[in-house]
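Annex B. Sample input.
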Amino acid sequence: ASTKGGVDIETVAAESPAFIIKEPIDIAKGLLPDQIRRVAHALQINKPELMAQAEEQIANLYKMFWETDALQVEINPLGETPTGEIVCVDAKV
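Annex B, continued. Sample output.
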């Protein structure tokens, strides 16, 4: 994950690696709730009502990754709509 949306993630990784949010996942345990919260917080989602939505989106992304046996799930961006919803706007699986 990264707060630097709208740009090529490989460029961010090469030029500004501090902006890449990494969370190692134990394959036997899966993505844990505290890990989901850390990612949502690192994405600077600070409103409580949006945090719950972001956590749900992150959990659903991992679920999709796992259940489809994907190599990668990429969204850009994760955004807030004018009506206050957190959504995955564009995706690549």
